[in-house]
UniProtKB/TrEMBL annotation:
It is found in: Endoplasmic reticulum membrane. GO terms for biological process: protein folding in endoplasmic reticulum. Residues 793-998 form the ER membrane protein complex subunit 1 C-terminal domain. It comes from Hymenochirus boettgeri (Congo dwarf clawed frog). Component of the ER membrane protein complex (EMC). Transmembrane segments: none annotated. Keywords: Disulfide bond, Endoplasmic reticulum, Glycoprotein, Membrane, Signal, Transmembrane, Transmembrane helix. Its main location: endoplasmic reticulum. It is a single-pass type I membrane protein. This is ER membrane protein complex subunit 1. Belongs to the EMC1 family.
C-alpha cells in the first residue's frame, strides 16, 4: 500500500518535471482527422423518415419544427434551412414507436411504445423526465387542468385512465375504465375546467361517456347513449365548442350532436336542410375538429367531409349546425391558431379557369392516375386561409406550389402561423407528399427548403460510371468509319483536335479565375449537363431505390440529388432488384438500368427500364410480365447495342429474355446448355437447380432438402459478379503454391434452427455448387443463433453469429483451396469430375454486434482486401482480411514468419483508428455497398440506413497516387537541373572531341 502511493507520487512528480516528455509520449497514442480533410472525400446526409406527428412553433421568429416519424425518431428541424438540429433515435421495434406528440411551451410530450411517457426540452433535445405507464393498449392523450391552465397530461389506455404532472411526470392517479372488455375507449377530452371526458364505443350499439375529476380521479358523471349507426369514433367524430361531440351519419345524411357534460340523447341535424347534398353511396361522413383557441376551449367550427375531394366548413352554435363555406377539389384541410386568431387552411388543386363550387364540378380537374387514386393534372396546388368563425377568406394568404413528380399527392399539411405587424395573419406551411418529400413553403409560394425523407429507407443501390466528356467522346470517334472516306476522316480528326484545344483553353481560364477568388466564393456546381467522368473514375452516379418506390440519382462526390422519379402504385413491402444492363463504356449508346419490382401481396412483377445518368425512362419497352417472376439472371452475353441479356424465370419455369431480338435469341439458343438457374423455397426448405433448354423452357436437374421443421434458410449468398481475382494461389513459406478453389457458381447457404432454446439452437452453413447441386462443405455451430451477417468472396467466406453458450459475438472464416496442384489452370467447370477442396476454418471473438458487413473491391483485385463492418454505434470498422486468416498459427514457425502470418489470438480488438467514418456515424445501418474506382488502390464505399455516408478507403494505402504534400518544386528543380547539366555536359563533350580532333 505504501509503495503504491510512492509510485503514484513519483509519477505525478515526473509529469510535473518533464511535461514536454509526457506530451511527446502521448502523441503516439493520438490519431485524428485534419480539419481540412473533413468532407474532402466524404459526405453524410441525415434523415428522420416519414412524419407521423409535427408541431411547428408559432410566432414570427420561430426557428424550429418538432417532428416524430415512423422510424421511431423524435427530432427538431431548423425551419429556416431544414437542417437537423437534434435527433433521438429510439428502438427500431414496437417498443420505440412514437404513439403521440404534443407541445406545451418549449416542451414536447411524447408516448413511445405505449409504455414510456416523456418530456423533452426542445431547444437542445434534452430529456426533462420520463415516466413508465401501466400495461395496456395506448389510445390517446390530452392536457388537463383547471382554471383554463394545463397542469397535467391525461393518458388513455384501453382499460385505464391515468393523470401525470406536467412538471415532473409523477403519477397523480390512475383509474380503471368500466366495461373495458366490451367498450372500445378511443377519445379523450379535457375542457380545462377540472374534469376529463372519456368516450368509448360499442360499434353499432352505443357509446359510453365517463367524466373524471382531475383532483381525485373519481367518476363524477357516467352516461350511455344509443348510437346504432356509429361504427367508430376515429375520423367520424370530433369535439367542438363547450364539450359537444359531433358525429357524421352518412346513411341518414345528417350529423348528430351530443353533450359530453349532460350525456343526453343525440340531436340529429339533417344536412339537406342546410343545403348540403350527400351522395347515396357514401360510407361515412368525415369530421375534422379544430385545435383549441386562445382561451383553451375547443373550436365551434369543424370540417365535414362529404366526398374524397369535397369539404364543408361547419359551425355549431346555439344548438344549430350551419355551413360556413363549401370547398371542392380539396387535397388537405387543417386548423391553426396564432393565440388570438384561429384560421382554417385549405389546400386545393389549382385550375386554369375560374374555380366553381359544387358536386357537379368536383371531377373536372382531377384525372385518374391509377385505379382507386386521383391526382392534380398540373400538379399545382394552392393553400388559402379562412377565418374559422366566419369562413371569410383572408386576402394575400394564397400560397401556390408545384410538385415535380407526377402521380404524387400531398398527404399531410402542418401550419406555422403568426401575427404580422399590421395584425394580419401570416403563415408558413410544411407539406408532406406520399413519396415522403417534405416541402417548407413561405408566402406566396417560395420554397424555403426540401427534404427527401424516403432516403431514410434505401433498399437497394448501384454505382454507375459517368459518361465521357464531349472531348473524350470526340476522341472515341476521331478516326471515323471507313465509309467516311479519306477527306472526311481528316476533317473529323481536325475538328476533334480543335474541340480538345477549346476545352483545354476553357479549363485553363477557369483555373486562372478561381485562383484569384477567395476559396469560399469558388462554386463547383454540379448538374446533369456538366457530368463527366474524372481522370481516375472516382466520381460516379449513385442510383438508389427506396421502399416507397422512389428512385434517386445522386452524384457521389458531393451527395447532390441530380434526378429522381416516383413509381406510382408500389405497395409497402415490395421487393426490388436493380440491374445494370449497359454501362457508359459503349458510347454513343446510353447506359441502361433495369428495376424489377415484386408486389408482396399479389406476387406480380413489374419491370422499369431507365437511363441511370439522366433519370429518364427508356424508349425500349420492357416485355409484359403476365406471371410472377421468381428468379432473374443477367448474362454476360450482349445484344447488338451492347446491352447485357436479362433472363426472367416465371412461376411456371418459363424463361423470358430481355431484350428480345433475333440476335439475342440466337445466342441464347447456342448457350442454352450452359445456362443454369437456382431456386430457393424458404417455407419448404428446398433448394433446386434448373437447366435451360433451347425452347426457353427449363427442367429441374438437382434438389437439396433442408428439413424445415429443424432449420430454416435465412441467407443465400453468391459471389459478386464484378469481382476480379488477381492471384490464383498463395505462396507459402516453403516456396510452394497453395492454389485457391475459385468456383464462380458456389452458393453459401446459412440456416438457423427453429428451436430457439439456448441449449438446443444452432446455425448451419452449406456450400452448394449452383450448377450441379453438390454440397461442397457443411458445418454446424451448436448453441448459436442469429442475426447472421455473411461475406462471400474469392475463395473465402466470413460470417458472424451469436454464441449462446459463451454469450458473445463470433466471426468464423472459411477458406477453400485445391491444394498444391491446380486441377485446371485455364478454366473452371462445375461439370468436371468431383474434386473436393481443402477447407480451412478458424473462429474469432468479436466484441460487438454487427449490423452490416461487406468486403472492399478494386478494379483488378491486386489490393489487399478489407472487411467493412457496420457497428450498432454507427461506426464503420475497416478490418484487414489478414486478421481473419484461418492459417494464422498458434505457434509461429520460420515458414509462417516468411509468409508474414499474424500469430493467432482468439479475440479481435476494435481500434477506433480503423473507423473510416470518424465521428460521422450512421444510425441503424442496413447495408454497405462497395464499388471499384479507376485507381487500383481506391475503393468507393456507401453506407446507408437512416443516414447515407459516402467515402473512399485505401486498403493498401495510395500506392498509385502521389501524396498531397508531394514536393513538386523540388523534383521539378532537380529535373530541370539534370536537363541543363546534360546539355552543358554534352556541349563540353563536343568541344573536347573537337579539340582532340585538331591535335
Amino acid at each position: 500500500m505504501v509503495s503504491g502511493r510512492k509510485c503514484g507520487l513519483g509519477g505525478v512528480m515526473a509529469a510535473d518535471k518533464y511535461p514536454v516528455l509526457l506530451i511527446l509520449l502521448s502523441l503516439s497514442l493520438v490519431r485524428a482527422v485534419f480539419e481540412d480533410q473533413v468532407g474532402k472525400f466524404d459526405w453524410r446526409q441525415q434523415y428522420v423518415g416519414r412524419l407521423q406527428f409535427a408541431s411547428l412553433e408559432s410566432g414570427l421568429g420561430a426557428k424550429k419544427l418538432i417532428v416524430a416519424t415512423d422510424k421511431n425518431i423524435i427530432a427538431a428541424l431548423n425551419s429556416r434551412t431544414g437542417d437537423l438540429l437534434w435527433r433521438h433515435v429510439d428502438k427500431d421495434t414496437a417498443e420505440g414507436t412514437v404513439d403521440a406528440l404534443m407541445m406545451i411551451g418549449q416542451d414536447a410530450i411524447t408516448v413511445s411504445g405505449g409504455r414510456l411517457l416523456r418530456s423533452w426540452e426542445t431547444n437542445i433535445g434534452g430529456l426533462n423526465w420520463e415516466a413508465t405507464l401501466e400495461s395496456g393498449s395506448f389510445q390517446t392523450m390530452s392536457f388537463a387542468g383547471s382554471q383554463e391552465t394545463p397542469r397535467y397530461v391525461a393518458v388513455l389506455k384501453n382499460s385505464a385512465l391515468s393523470l401525470h404532472f406536467l412538471s415532473n411526470g409523477h403519477l397523480k392517479w390512475t383509474e380503471p375504465l368500466p366495461e373495458s372488455d366490451t367498450v372500445q375507449y378511443q377519445m379523450l377530452h379535457s375542457p380545462y375546467k377540472g374534469s376529463v371526458h372519456v368516450v368509448g364505443i360499442v360499434p353499432q350499439s352505443h357509446i359510453n361517456i365517463l367524466t373524471f375529476s382531475v383532483e381525485d380521479g373519481s367518476i363524477s358523471h357516467q352516461a350511455r347513449v344509443l348510437t346504432p349507426w356509429l361504427r367508430s369514433l376515429h375520423g367520424t367524430c370530433g369535439v367542438v365548442g363547450d364539450s359537444f361531440l359531433v358525429c357524421g351519419d352518412a346513411p341518414m345524411s345528417s350529423v348528430h350532436i351530443l353533450s359530453l357534460l349532460s350525456g343526453e340523447e343525440t340531436v340529429r341535424h339533417s344536412l339537406q336542410s342546410a343545403g348540403i347534398e350527400v351522395s347515396e353511396d357514401l360510407d361515412e361522413l368525415g369530421v375534422i375538429s379544430g385545435a383549441r383557441n386562445g382561451n383553451g376551449a375547443a373550436l365551434s367550427q369543424f370540417f365535414l367531409q362529404i366526398s374524397p375531394r369535397r369539404f364543408f366548413l361547419m359551425q355549431y352554435r346555439d344548438g344549430a349546425v350551419s355551413p360556413l363555406r363549401d370547398f371542392s377539389q380539396v387535397s388537405l384541410v387543417n386548423f391553426a391558431s396564432t393565440g388570438e386568431k384561429t384560421v382554417a387552411a385549405v389546400m386545393q388543386c389549382k385550375t386554369d379557369g375560374n374555380q366553381k363550387s359544387g358536386p357537379e364540378t368536383e371531377n373536372l380537374t382531377v384525372q385518374s392516375c391509377s385505379e382507386g387514386s386521383w391526382y392534380c393534372p398540373g400538379q399545382t396546388f394552392t393553400i388559402n386561409l379562412y377565418m374559422a368563425d366566419s369562413g371569410r377568406r383572408l386576402l394575400e394568404t394564397t400560397t401556390s406550389f408545384t410538385l415535380e413528380q407526377s402521380c404524387v399527392r400531398p398527404d399531410a399539411m402542418f401550419l406555422q402561423t403568426f401575427l404580422k405587424k399590421d395584425d394580419s395573419v401570416g403563415y408558413r406551411a410544411l407539406v408532406q407528399t406520399e413519396d415522403n418529400q417534405l416541402l417548407f413553403l413561405h408566402q406566396p409560394g417560395k420554397l424555403a427548403w426540401l427534404r427527401e425523407e424516403s432516403l431514410a429507407d434505401v433498399v437497394t443501390m448501384e454505382m454507375v460510371d459517368l459518361p465521357l466528356t464531349g472531348a473524350q467522346a470526340e476522341l472515341e470517334g476521331e478516326f471515323g468509319k471507313k465509309a467516311d472516306g479519306l477527306l472526311g476522316m481528316v476533317l473529323k480528326r481536325l475538328s476533334s483536335q480543335l474541340i480538345l484545344l477549346q476545352s483545354w483553353s476553357a479549363h485553363l481560364w477557369k483555373m486562372f479565375c478561381d485562383a484569384r477568388k477567395p476559396r469560399s466564393q469558388i462554386r463547383n456546381e454540379i448538374n446533369i449537363d456538366t457530368l463527366a467522368r474524372d481522370e481516375f473514375n472516382l466520381q460516379k452516379m449513385i442510383v438508389m431505390v427506396t421502399a416507397s418506390g422512389k428512385i434517386f440519382g445522386i452524384e457521389s462526390s458531393s451527395g447532390s440529388i441530380l434526378w429522381k422519379f416516383y413509381l406510382h402504385g408500389v405497395h409497402p413491402g415490395s421487393s426490388f432488384k436493380l440491374l445494370i444492363q449497359r454501362t457508359t463504356a459503349h458510347f454513343p449508346h446510353p447506359p441502361q438500368c433495369t428495376l424489377l419490382v415484386k408486389d408482396k401481396e399479389t406476387a406480380k412483377s413489374t419491370m422499369y427500364v431507365f437511363n441511370p445518368i439522366f433519370g429518364k425512362l427508356s424508349q425500349l419497352a420492357p416485355p409484359p410480365l403476365q406471371r410472377p417472376i421468381i428468379q432473374s439472371l443477367l448474362l454476360p452475353v450482349m445484344d447488338n447495342d451492347y446491352a447485357k441479356v436479362l433472363l426472367l424465370l416465371d412461376d411456371q419455369h418459363k424463361v423470358i429474355p430481355f431484350p428480345t431480338t433475333k440476335n439475342v435469341l440466337q445466342q441464347i439458343h447456342e448457350l442454352a446448355p450452359t445456362i443454369f438457374f437456382y431456386l430457393v423455397d424458404v417455407e419448404k426448405g428446398k433448394l433446386s437447380g434448373l437447366r435451360l433448354h433451347k425452347d426457353l423452357s427449363t427442367e429441374e436437374i438437382w434438389e437439396v432438402l433442408l428439413p424445415p421443421d429443424l432449420q430454416r434458410i435465412t441467407l443465400v449468398n453468391g459471389k459478386p459478379s464484378n469481382e476480379h481475382v488477381h492471384s490464383q494461389g498463395r505462396v507459402m513459406g516453403d516456396r510452394s503454391v497453395l492454389y485457391k478453389y475459385l468456383n464462380p457458381n458456389l452458393l453459401a447457404v446459412m440456416t438457423e434452427s427453429t428451436d430457439t432454446h439456448p441449449e438446443r439452437c444452432f446455425i448451419g452453413i452449406y456450400l452448394i455448387d449452383g450448377v450441379t447441386g453438390r454440397i461442397i462443405h457443411s458445418s454446424v455451430q451448436r448453441r448459436a443463433r442469429g442475426p447472421i451477417q455473411i461475406v462471400h468472396s474469392e475463395n473465402w467466406v466470413v460470417y458472424q453469429y451469436w454464441n449462446s453458450k459463451a454469450r458473445r459475438n463470433e466471426l468464423t472464416v472459411l477458406e477453400f483451396y485445391e491444394g498444391t496442384e491446380q486441377y485446371n489452370s485455364t478454366s473452371f467447370s462445375s461439370l468436371d469430375r468431383p474434386h473436393l477442396p481443402h477447407i480451412l476454418q478458424q473462429s474469432y471473438i468479436f466484441p460487438s454486434a454487427i449490423r452490416a458487413m461487406q468486403a472492399t473491391i478494386t478494379e483488378r483485385g491486386i489490393t489487399s482486401r478489407h472487411i467493412l463492418i457496420g457497428l450498432p454505434s454507427g461506426a464503420i470498422l475497416s478490418l484487414p482480411k489478414a486478421l481473419l486468416d484461418p492459417r494464422r498459427p498458434e505457434i509461429p514457425t520460420e515458414y509462417t514468419r516468411e509468409e508474414n502470418l499474424i500469430p493467432y489470438t482468439p479475440d479481435i480488438q476494435i481500434h477506433t483508428e480503423r473507423f473510416i467514418n470518424y465521428n460521422q456515424t450512421i444510425s441503424r445501418m442496413r447495408g454497405i455497398f462497395t464499388a471499384p474506382s479507376g485507381l487500383e488502390s481506391t475503393c468507393l464505399v456507401v453506407a446507408y440506413g437512416l443516414d447515407i455516408y459516402q467515402t473512399r478507403v485505401f486498403p493498401s494505402k495510395q500506392f498509385d497516387v502521389l501524396k498531397d504534400d508531394y514536393d513538386y518544386i523540388l523534383i521539378s528543380s532537380v529535373l530541370i537541373g539534370l536537363v541543363f547539366a546534360t546539355m552543358i555536359t554534352k556541349r563540353l563533350a563536343q568541344v573536347k572531341l573537337l579539340n582532340r580532333a585538331w591535335r
